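Predict structure. Input: DUF488 family protein, 133 residues.
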Amino acid sequence: MPLRIVRLGTPRAAGEGTRIGTVRRPPRGVPKAEFASRDYYDVWYPLLSPSADLMAQGQQVQPGQEGDKAWEAFAKQFRKELAQPEASRTLDLLAALSHHSAMSLGCYCEDEARCHRSVLRAELASRGADIAE
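Output follows.
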């Protein structure tokens, strides 16, 4: 049962398991009681989202060569945040659980390549997580 990396708010795949929202803020305009039924998340876990300042930096990255440099700077800083003990232990736990439990984690961003979940995918893979393609 590999871990899935998903866009929150999209229909769930069969066997996806518990959806973990790695976002700084809950979805706007959605009652808390409807987060799961509207395919956002079952559990909100902002510890695995970029800090507010870093998220603002990442959201301003533009397409193109300069944007690629800015994105790399964002990803490097986010990896530093994920190296902090609580986040690092959480990633280790999720990597281990990915071999035994159905779960997914995600964010609202449309393009995973320019979303912090691409960094999470790489960090989880480096810890030996079983990740669905």
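The chain has four helices and four strands.
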